[in-house]
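pinned: reference chain
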Amino acid sequence: MKIKLRKFLKKENFKKALKDIGVTEKGTEILSSKYKTLIFEIKDISTVTANLLKQEALCVGADVALPLEASFFEKKKVKVFLIIDERKLYKLIKRLNEQTPALRKISFELEKYLNLEKRPDSIFYNDKFLSFDKYILMGILNVTPDSFYDGGKYTYVDKAVKHAIEMVKEGAQIIDVGGESTRPGAQKVSEEEELKRVIPVIKALKEALPKNIFISVDTYKAKVAQEALKIGADIINDISGLTFDENMINVLKETQAPVVINHIKGTPQDMQKNPFYKDVILEVEEFFENQIEKLLKVNYPYSHIILDVGIGFGKRLEDNLKLIKNISHFKKFKLPLLIGTSRKSFIGKVLNLDSPKDRLEGTLSIDIYLYLEGVNIFRVHDVKAHKYALEMIDALFKY
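pinned: its C-alpha cells
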C-alpha cells in the first residue's frame, strides 16, 4: 500500500484521473468538483479495505473515489482517491486507528500529512541561525570553468568574493560554492583539483561575508566536505544524496553540519541517458527515507537535514514537472525543502529556449509556484530577481 498526496490544478485533470481508475461517469462528475481539497492517491489497497475506508470517510464528511470493480469486492488490489480537508483528516485518522490493521496502517501514513503548513525547525550551526519563517535564497557561486550557465566567470578568488558579496546585498542568506560542474555530461574533477578551486574561495568568503551568512559547499566528496568545514563552510550540499562517497556520512556524524540530500539517478556523466521511473514521486520519497534512516542511525540530528528532489538530476521533462507540481507531498517529512530550477534545460524544453540566458522568466514562474506550495530554500543564479518576485508574493499575504 502506497499513499501519495496529489495536486490537481484543474478540474479536468482530476476528472481524467478518476476515469483512469474506473470511477463511474456519474461519480466522476460529482467528485471532480472537489479537486481543490486534499487528495490522497492510495495504491495497492484491497477492495475490502477500500470499501471500509469509504465508509469511514463518509462518516466524517469526506469521500473516497472507488473504481467500479471495487463495488463487487473482487479479490484484487485497486487504486483509490481519498478526498478530504485537513479538519476532517484529523477525525478520520482517529476513527481509522480503531479499525482493522490495514486501516490502522493507512491512518499511520496519513498522520504524516497533518500540519503541512507548519514551518520546519530552525537550523543552528557555527553560531549562525537559519530561520524558515520566510523564504531563503541560496546564491550559486560556481568556481568552475564549465558550469552550464556561468562557467569560467568566477574562477579567480577576488571575482568570486565580489560576486558573493553582491548576492548577499541582493538578499542571499546562503552562498553555495561549487568546484565541480554537475551539469549533464560534465566530466569528473579530481579531489585535489576540487580542493584547489573551493578552499581558497571559502577561506576568503569566511573573512569577507557578514557573520550571519551561511557558506555551503556543493560537493559529493567526503574529503572536500571535511576540509571545507574546517576552514569556514557551514552546509554540505551533496548532489548524490550521500551515495557517491561512503565516507560522507562519517563526516556528517563527526561534524553534525547541516546537509542537503539531493535525489539523483545515475551520475552527472550518464544521468540524462534515458532515465525512467514507474512513479517518480514515490521513488524520490523512498530514497529520502533510506538516506534519512542512515543518518539517524549514526545519531545525526534530524533537524539538520534539508531535502532537494533533484530537478534535472536524472529526470525526464515529465518527471521534473510532476515533482514540481506535487512538491507538497514531500512536506510530510517536516524538513526544509530546497529547490534548484534556475535556468535549467527543462525550462528551455517547455519554452523552446536553447540558451540558459533566456530562461529567467521561466525560472521565476516555476519558483513562485513552488514558494506558494511551501518550498523553503531557492538555489538561484539571479538573487535580485527572485527577491523582488517573492517579496511581491509576500506582500499579498499581508492583506
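why pinned: The first strand starts at residue 2 and ends at 6. The mean pLDDT is 94.
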